[in-house]
Amino acid sequence: MDQWASMEFRPRNYSAEEESHSLPRVRAENDPLSTPCSSKEVDVVGQKEEIYDPLRGIDANSPASLKDLQYFDDNSVKVLSESSSVQLQEKEWSSFKKFLIQRFSVPKTVSVSAMSDVIVKIGKASERSSTNMHLEELEDPQKFAEEGVRMITQKEYVSRLHELKAEIAHSWQNDDRVTSLKLTIKVTRLMMDTSVLQFYPMLFALATDIMDMLGDMVFERIKCKAEVSEDGTRICYLPADFTSSDICSDAKETCNNWFYKIGSIQELLPRIYLELAILHCWRFLIVQPADCLKRLVTMIRGIADPLASAYCRLYMVHCSQKLPHCSVSVGYLIICINDMKVQLSRVMSARETSHGKLLENPALLIILIEPTIEYIMKSIFKDLNQRHIGDMLVDLELCKDKKELFGTIPCVSVILHHLLKELPVEVVQSNAAGIINLIECSNDTSFDQCLNYRLLGFKLCESRRQMEVTNVQAVVNRVIEVSTQYDCLEKYLTVVDAFVDIVLQYGMDNYLSIILEGVSERACIKGIAENELATLESIFIKLLTHFNNLEDAFSLSHFVEILDMMYGSSRSVIIVHILKIATRSGYLRDPTTIQFLIEICQALHDDIDFPNVKEDDLQQPARLISRFVQMVDYGAEMERQLTFLVECRGAFSGINELKETLVHKSNHLAIKAMKDSKNHLSFIKACIAFSEVTIPSISAPIRQLNLFLETAEVALLGGLISHSDGLLDSAITCLESLDLMNGSRVRADVDGILSTVRKVCSLFVMVPERGVTNIPKSIFFLINSLSWMAPRFRTRILCAVITLTATLSQKKLPYHANHGKVPGNELLFFEDQSYCEELKSLSKCVLQNLVDVVHQEPSQASRGVMALEACDCIMSSFKLNPEISTICSKLIETAKLCLSENDKYLQSTMELMNKYLPTTQRAVLPLTV
User: What is the pTM of this model?
Assistant: First the structure.
């Protein structure tokens, strides 16, 4: 330390330095933020060849461009071959089968009848009497009563079907096609057993997969016969759109044999299924294979079981898609729907089938049949021209002629639902009144009518074309009349939810009041069930989205009342939506609105399970509540604003982000009071005290540190020295407890911590020191005590401490608190030599530590930069006497060993040192490396 006894701080004239470093101001000729002039177009001379730019729009003036586009479109259609279309249909069918399996829960055990011996051979079955199993739709009840029913687990059943599929494929590969056909027939017989209703969709998906495999193998064999002779000679290559005239007699004979074999099956259902499996093979025999569909539709009428017949029709629709598209019409699909209407009507009237269980649970039966109706209806509308919809509705027996598409002819409700789902929006909009008539006269047990009204409402909302107001009022009026007949809140909400958008779009405020009053009445009587909350949430979101002003939404009759009765996540979603609207429209000043928002924020806060909530789930509510607090403004009533902050701190104690917002708002209030001409010293003290109490409750130490510093700045600006001293002491305490990992796996922001420490040092310039160097010493000792602090981080903090001591030694400080009203240390310790000596003593310790830390850095490049940073700090803080010059020279030598000769930072530092050195010493350090 004796070698630095003569060290002196460099005197600084901050005002002169600021003026010398300020850039000269020159008035700009043009506004730099104005729109720049458009770039000039440059024509390339002699360039005639047109370059195709795929991102350039089509030139409307160029006839060639339109011609090329037309050519491109035509070729695109041609490229989409029939094979790719079939692949797309197969993907859709595969997805539909997965949907069937997932939609219906399957029992763990499945009863197996005598016709299912192909399944029982592998499964471990157990005997049970028929009376205990409640047998359903057995082909021979007496026989099964004698033999009993065997049980097999659902897993074993599925496993056996997969084994059967493998056996069929293996037999086919070994040219044992008879065995493949026999096993497939046994699989199709499984479709006759509907004793376990819920299992039937899964059975259908698995069994038809096997049938499709057989059908494809048969098709490929016949196709191979048509293309290659028995001696291996290639006859031809069949095109994708081949016809029966392209097929040789040998292939046709083989094809006929397959149809003869299938036609000899005694049971009707297996015979139909297998002919459907090879339906596309009719292409080898006849010109119009789709003509067979009408015959098959008629055959399916012979299946008495409504469930089996419905799924058989479904499979027929799937298989018909393998035929040439141009040859298939929707006529057979319409016949299927009409036949299903007859069967469903008989099921609902309990006149169908003699098997008891189907009649015991007709609702379940209709639910199982519904996917088949949906698939067939989609197939009808898939390629249907809108001009032919009238003919289709007439064929479906929904109207007498095309002049009046929807009349009073009833329809099975479940079929009507899927018809409405597929109808074009324009058709629904033009015939809304007739559709309501149809819904009203189609009231049966197959489907809940409220869902049909709901679907009608959604369809009308999809329309982009405005309806006539009188027509809309007529439709809405009839729907409201229907909905008022529902005493159940769930059904009432189901209907009105779909029409709220229409009511809002056409400004029907009277109907909106009726809807909310109906919700309130039913909710007050029986409360709101959990399954009703989602629909109610949907209605409220639509209302909030429609009204630009929250006050308009709050003024709606029963709005607040219904919201108070809601609970759970649905209420939280609505509150979040309200807060989003409230905080994006500017400051909140209306006391009534503020009070209501406080209450719903409190409800949102109370719904949060803080011990178990994930941090990501907490972010949005916390951010919105904090934003709400930020946007509340009581104007000149600052005491009321502070009271509001106190209330929020008590009400939302679990949200750290909000506590930070409260401190920021409190400090802002204090600054606002300082700017007021009136004397608000006691109010400013109250704001500072509020922040002092709030900050320690925040969990993150780094956030506490920053808030303590912010509040200390406010206290200094208000001249509250004692408050600022305490806040800075608290900041140092936070710094001492700071951990780089901060108790988590996420590494803290080291640069942010460094910036905060530098800010602490800059604040101490303004604080009148009672102990002169107490705070700088605290920082210095703190640096040495923190084990996680890296040398590079430590170096920069030590440089900040040296800069602080050098600044405090100046006769005039660069800045003061409260515009100079608070005296600085240059006045408190004016001409006090002990003050300067104490600063020098601390600087010596810090300087020695700084030099040692630089050499502790393991990275060579970083060590060189650190040496230059330390050298710059020392030169700007101390006079370059021989002792200090020696230190700087050694640091520059360290940098030379670590950095390149051409490093600009190194060269500029050397030039700066030569500038600061006295003239007699400048020869000591060369300008070049």
Answer: 0.73
